[in-house]
Amino acid sequence: MMHWWPGGWWFSGLHPIWMIISWVFGIAVIVAVIWIIVRAVNTFMYGGTHGKKKSAEEILDERFARGEISEEEYRKMKETLRNH
To answer: Where are the domains of the chain?
Structure first.
């Protein structure tokens, strides 16, 4: 009667549970590694600013710097932003 020794019924009964746990853990590790690689590539390619939202004042400053709006328009819009 070797039912309680490794390889007996006791171990065989738990084997499917450990197999499921191992698969879940393995898949979680693979997903984590892929996520870390994607984040590292995005940081490298976009300089760590990917996903950073610009404020309305930053966008306004850029538009003025590019010459898209006049100084008068810039001042009016800047004042409007500061009042709201």
So the answer is: 1-48, 53-84
